[in-house]
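Two proteins follow. First one:
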Amino acid sequence: MEEKSRSGRGSAGDAQPRGVEQIIKAAIDRGASDLHIKAGDVFRARIDGKLVPLTKQRLTPEQTRAIALRLMPNEDDRNRLDKLHEYDCSWGVPGVGRFRVNILRQRSSFMIVMRVIPFDIPTIESLKLPSVLTTIAAAERGMILVTGITGSGKSSTMAAILNHINQNNQKHVVTLENPIEFLHRDINSSITQREIGVDTDDFRAGLRAALRQDPDVIVIGEMRDVETVDTAMKAAETGHLVISTLPTPDAVATVSRVLAMFPPEEQEIARLRFAETLQAVVAQRLLPRADGHGRAAAVEVLICTAAARAIIRDAGRAAELYDYIREASEQYGMQTFDQHLMDLVGDEVITYETALAAATKPADFELQMRTLRRRSRAAEPAEAAQASAPRKR
């Protein structure tokens, strides 16, 4: 979208609220997931995974600073803007949208990254996630970890799991978020949403306090340090269901990352505790759809059966976990990324080339796809012959 005038008056160029909001709304209408606003650059938006320009006029440092002030929620924070290096908040305007906002400094000027938060709470079905997530969401205790790189849709998946609990159970759910993203209303459950820096000091303090607030389910925006992981495991050990996220690429890496947070002398006991408290890992990646419209989630699912717990408990068997997920897929509803990628290619949701580039084990994936195609081609003549054969009367 182009600014209304080259002079910038009444447009995003002079950071007038209506102009900024018009550009943001135009980006949302085009399906943007994120917006980038940076001094010395144009407005950009991530659409279908690609960062594309929205305007032609570059923003000055003063204009970017004015937009940052516009997005900050309270006067105290605005007064100390020039002393901040990073700042997180949420921002929303009726008719435009809600956003998770990160304000940062680069080259001594400001940059703003805005993540779009849908008004509607997603469901497991609307996100086209594996149906086994409804079973995972029904767990009474333990830890459910939703993982993936930045921008892989972890927050949406966690919101969908929480929505399922809210729709189907009578529980008290306490969330700790930085900032609050999806706004959950009380349906069958009571949802208490606390924002870090506003309602509680930090994740560790909020999590310790949550244990005194009669929770059934505790949702932690992200487990960033060993203290938070340790307290989360204690919560799971005492009968609570804990749901959180980690920026890890797959299930095997998630187990390794959690245990690596602990000092070497504590890792053995941490491994035993983690093996007992972990309920499931849901790892995901967003891939471009074959039709060019939007992205599809490729999902890896680990469910902690007795066999999976035995593998996690034994440091020497870590390499077995991937093969176990693959082999237990039919019995328990687990799946590796590569298994789901094969399904997505078969359903023509994504292209074979996209799947191959995203595969965990590309050589094995390529071999399996060739085998499937040969079987499919071999089955076609037999099916055609059966269809043309005269029916017995």
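Second one, unrelated to the first:
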Amino acid sequence: MDPFPHKVEKTHTASEIVAQFPPLTKEELEANKIQVRVPGRIVSVRQMGRATFFHISDGRAKLQVYLREDVAGPKAYELFSLFDIGDWIDVKGVLFKTRTGELTVLCDAFTFLAKCFHPLPEKWHGLQDVELRYRRRYLDLIMNPEVGEVFRVRSAIVSFIRRFFDQRGYVEVETPMMQAIPGGALARPFSTHHNALDIDLYLRIAPELYLKRLVVGGMDKVYEINRNFRNEGIDSEHNPEFTMLEFYEAYCDYNDMMNLTEELLCQLSRALFGKEEFPYGEQTISLSRPFRRVKFMEALSQYSGLAPSRFDDRKGIIEFAAALAPEKKPSTFGKAIDIIFDKHVKPQIVQPTFIINPPKEVSPLAKAAKDNPDEAARFELMVAGMEIANAFSELTDPAEQRKRFEEQAEERKKGDEESHPVDMDYVQALEYGLPPTGGEGIGIDRLAMLFANRKSIREVILFPLLRPKE
């Protein structure tokens, strides 16, 4: 027997059989004599003299197999005794139901496919060590089939999003991962060096500035689903490498983006669950339209626990925020209240809520709000205590954009690592004319957390970044 066969001529997977044939009665199975050939991993064995029951799994469903010496032959039956739990096998036989009604393959032949050289974790306790689950995701998938379902949900989310935007005339594009000047967000980048060109480059923190260059060029509806990289802390909602959807549409503003976001998430929920409600932890999230809309400062006053008069003391607020997040080193009032919002307000917002018109100071790429020049025409969508989406009426004035970039550059000189140098090429692109544009970013990982009912981003990233083992 070849221990490393090249391929398997299967008729079904275990999950296909479990989904398709259980409605048939014992008599119907006996009459039809349905022949199957199904591969899988051996996950349990129960030997009884000259007959053995065992289960194989394809990672989604288990299927029982009945191996008898008088059917498969003495040589094959003796060979099977050498197989271990964890080994891969290809089983051929006829479907039937046992006296207890369990769908089973009466095996008349089998082929060895692959050897598992390590014992699998103990059956009843499974694989519980969280760090080991992330380090050896393959073992996690073997022992915890529900983990595979999380990533199938994630895949369904991405597939749906692509269909949603393709049907609306958007063009999917790809923009550079390595950039000479990082931009599109206030974040600390990863740096690298290109030897042939002898230049320093940065892994992108956002694709925004390149996508808007495309709108300048006449591509009025564009989107991208791809990686971003931010050299920052790791927690339940943050991983240094993460996946974002960003989309831009000309002739729109952030109000249009809110409407489109509601439509996207409602349709996505119906596609996954058949309804607009689903559980998340102990809560039930409702995506029924319209979502609530609350101004940033109103939410801050309502949820922060700070008296409105406290915000008149700008220096005191900066000191208060610095104590909340020393690593951020907030130097301005706008950045300080943004930190207070993240720490005290965001965790309390459960149902979908658009937080609109935050300070312009922390929104360097957004137009000013029509009714208040100190506020941005921007929203952040909060669900279950997480920021799911962030959108602007994009700033289209090249002189104003240059001014804001220069202000960022000054902050960088003072030690603010989240601010970046002036991107004059982008300013020049704006000088060729960016029409009114709405743009938005949605975190795919957090969407997956929400719809798969997971509390940690590491549960929805197949291979999250971990500290090396000593």
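SUMMARY FIELD: DSSP finds 15 helices and 20 strands in the chain. The first strand starts at residue 35 and ends at 48.
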